[in-house]
Design goal:
The complex is a heterodimer. By secondary structure, chain A is an alpha+beta fold. Chain A has a single domain (about 5-140), classed as Archease domain (Archease, Possible Chaperone, Chain: A, domain 1). Chain A has helices at about 25-40, 60-75; strands spanning about 5-10, 15-20, 50-55, 80-90, 95-105, 120, 130, 135-140. In chain A, strands 1, 2, 6, 7 and 8 form a 5-stranded antiparallel β-sheet that branches. Chain A has a 3-stranded antiparallel β-sheet with strand order 3-5-4, covered by helices on one side. In chain A, strand 1 and strand 2 form a beta hairpin. The N and C termini of chain A lie far apart (about 30 Å). In chain A, about 45% of the residues are buried. Chain B is an alpha+beta fold. Chain B is about 35% helix and about 25% strand. Chain B has helices at about 35-40, 45-55, 110-115, 120-130, 145-155, 155-160, 165-170, 190-195, 220-225, 240-260, 280-315, 320, 395-400, 415-420, 425-435, 445-450, 455-465; strands at about 1-5, 5, 10, 15-20, 30, 65-70, 75-85, 90, 100-110, 210-215, 230-240, 275, 325-330, 335-340, 345-355, 355-360, 375-380, 390-395, 405, 435-440, 470-484. In chain B, strands 9, 10, 11, 13, 17, 18, 20 and 21 form an 8-stranded mixed β-sheet that branches. A 7-stranded mixed β-sheet of chain B has the order 3-4-5-6-7-15-14, with helices on both faces. In chain B, strand 17 and strand 18 form a beta hairpin. Chain B is globular. The chains are: A alpha+beta, B alpha+beta. At the A-B interface, helix 2 of A face helix 8, helix 10, helix 14 and helix 16 of B.
Chain lengths: ~140, ~475
């Protein structure tokens, strides 16, 4: 299980490159990059978890949906996703399903949010597999 | 001249053309000075995006860009494109995630000396009254679904009906604050949830509420008609449709990506996903986008009401003494059905303005009667440390840019570089030395939004002034700023 993310300098918004030795690891890396983009808060012990299920017609659409789901929980449910505990992605040609368990914490005054992510974009997003590693770039509109 | 691999032909001193190549349906045209091309476009993908937009089915005349052009999603920021209603498309990439992000300018009877003495208190009171920051909420009570539907259908009229504004405010708002074909039933339940408690909130990023003094008047006649005078205190509000608008864009981007495949459009960028305007997908997006636009107008109206209340309390003045009234409210992220001349014949087209402001001329029936002698006010905010401008629309804008002009400065530095440049500096103190008081949710926002992080908006405004697309009316200098 190997994954990584690296932020790229971007004039207006936030961009990062992701890598993972499976599609699931790539998605976990994206959630980790999302959290660092919005807060420096260290979550510590987590008591709260939620389950999500998503569908899409491409890997890119699934990743956009996944990160937008995490963003929805943050901005609307006031709940910060700290980690992805389990994740499963099912692919049948052009139909993809994702189920995941996310751990997180209700927002409180100790959690300082750095910025509002309007949305996750498709810009420069292309999930490819090279040398057994999946990789893509992700750009947030902020 | 070749810029970032794109060939630019000089048409006039500040107007450049990208000749059609490949599958471009029309040429691209960019209003920009040679100095700005060298400074801002050499390492930017924005010109390529102007060329990409020219691929849209049914695009009319040119894929245009204003001088504040910079890289965006699908369309560049500062992009304008009109599409034919019968065989053209509508694209969320030509509107943006923040549907009807825009600016409103309110005037007062106050002058500089009376405000300077109380500026700290005034900024603090405004900061406490208008929620700012990530997911900001709670300016007014959380709206029920029924009330939110009314907001989406009626725009800023909802605020007036709920004693949060006057009918005069509505009459000085673009489209009278309501796009009539908005359909709340085309907006998802998730978008409703995101917007329910965000009416009257600024949000974060480059959104702001700013107290300015009118520092310079360039056009006495227009300023007089707008009710603006030298030394006057005015207020700018810059925000949009908040989470509700972002969600509408997300929802319909998915639908229009599928539609692009269904209609076999050959597009160079997925963020240009689109559908024929008259298709079900196109009509549904148009109705939902209009609903989000109405939310945004109502949002700025409620914020203005909250700001007015703070001014009244801080200065202990009545409505008539204070004269806190709307000059105008313009949107700069929108797609609208408008009448324009194409090859000498007037017809309806869908004008996408993504980071561009409508700039209608004198005599236009689409602007308030009071302004028809001079033209529509065009509001162009700059950064929080320098200045903003009020301009006015012209007939030339109708002839060349589908009645559009620039919308702001645009970033010059990434947020990371801005943070780096602010290290070891006390930006709050630096702004204070310049006579500007700022309050924000955190110091980080101040650092990221520091004046040096933005281009000089005067360069942008000057291009449109010299080209005769908009004429300068007044320059505003900031005194107090609140940000997310």
């Amino acid at each position: 299980m190997t994954r990584s993310f690296k932020f790229i300098d971007h004039t207006a918004d936030i961009a990062f490159d992701l890598e993972g030795d499976s599609l699931e690891e790539l998605f976990i890396a994206s959630a980790e990059a999302f959290k660092i983009s919005v807060t420096d808060f260290k979550c510590g012990e987590i008591f709260d978890s939620i389950e999500i299920e998503l569908t899409a017609n491409s890997k890119e659409e699934l990743l956009v949906n996944f990160l937008n789901e995490i963003n929805f929980y943050l901005t609307t449910k006031k709940w910060l996703c700290c980690s992805v505990d389990s994740i499963k992605i099912f692919i049948d040609e052009n139909y993809l399903e994702l189920s995941a368990e996310l751990s997180g914490i209700k927002l409180n005054p100790e959690i300082e949010l750095k910025q509002e992510i309007k949305s996750v974009t498709y810009h420069q997003m292309k999930i490819e597999q090279k040398n057994k590693f999946y990789n893509t770039r992700v750009v947030f509109d902020i | 001249m070749n810029v970032s691999g794109i060939e630019l032909l000089k048409i006039r001193e500040n107007l450049w053309e990208i000749p059609p190549t490949g599958k471009m349906n029309v040429p691209g045209r960019i209003y920009i000075s040679p100095k700005m091309i060298e400074k801002h476009l050499r390492d930017d993908e924005a010109l390529k995006q102007v060329a990409n937009v020219a691929h849209l089915p049914g695009i009319q005349k040119y894929s245009l860009a204003m001088p504040d052009i910079h890289w965006g999603y699908g369309f560049p920021i500062g992009g304008v494109a009109a599409t034919d209603l019968d065989n053209g498309v509508i694209s969320p990439g030509g509107v943006g995630y923040d549907i009807n992000c825009g600016v409103r300018l309110a005037k007062t009877n106050l002058e500089l000396n009376s405000v300077q003495k109380r500026i700290n208190k005034l900024v603090t009171n405004l900061f406490n009254a208008v929620p700012t920051g990530v997911g900001a909420s709670g300016a007014i009570k959380k709206l029920s679904t029924a009330d939110l539907k009314k907001v989406l259908r009626n725009g800023s009229t909802w605020a007036v009906e709920n004693n949060l504004g006057s009918s005069e405010d509505v009459s000085f708002t673009e489209e009278n604050g309501t796009l009539k074909n908005a359909d709340p039933d085309m907006v998802s339940s998730r978008a409703f949830e995101r917007g329910a408690d965000q009416v009257g909130t600024l949000g974060s990023g480059n959104h702001f509420l700013e107290i300015d003094v009118v520092e310079e008047i360039y056009d006495d006649a227009a300023a007089n008609v707008f009710g603006i005078f030298h030394g006057q205190i005015v207020v700018q509000i810059h925000t949009g449709s908040r989470g509700l608008g972002y969600q509408v864009c997300d929802d319909y981007l998915k639908i229009l990506l599928q539609a692009s495949n269904k209609y076999a459009f050959d597009l160079p960028d997925r963020q240009l996903a689109c559908a024929p305007i008259k298709s079900k997908e196109g009509q549904d997006y148009l109705a939902a986008m209009q609903a989000a636009a109405n939310f945004a107008w109502n949002n700025r109206q409620v914020i203005m009401h909250l700001a007015k209340k703070v001014f009244k309390e801080t200065f202990n003045q009545s409505d008539s003494e204070l004269g806190f009234n709307l000059v105008y409210d313009v949107c700069h992220n929108i797609a609208k059905i408008e009448k324009h001349k194409i090859n000498g014949i007037e017809k309806e087209v869908c004008v996408h303005r993504k980071g561009a402001t409508r700039a209608f001329p004198p005599g236009s029936k689409m602007i308030p009667l009071k302004y028809q002698s001079v033209g529509q006010p065009v509001l162009i905010p700059g950064d929080m440390g320098r200045y903003s401008f009020v301009a006015v629309g012209t007939e030339k804008a109708m002839e060349e840019t589908f009645g559009s002009s620039c919308h702001g400065a645009g970033r010059n530095l990434s947020r990371k570089k801005a943070m780096k440049n602010s290290k070891g500096r006390n930006l709050v103190e630096e702004l204070k030395q310049k006579g500007i008081v700022i309050q924000a949710k955190g110091y980080r926002t101040i650092a990221e939004e520091m004046p040096g992080a933005y281009k000089d908006v005067a360069d942008v405004v000057e291009v449109m002034h010299k080209e005769g697309i908009t004429k300068k009316v007044a320059k505003l200098r900031p005194l107090g700023v609140i940000k997310g």
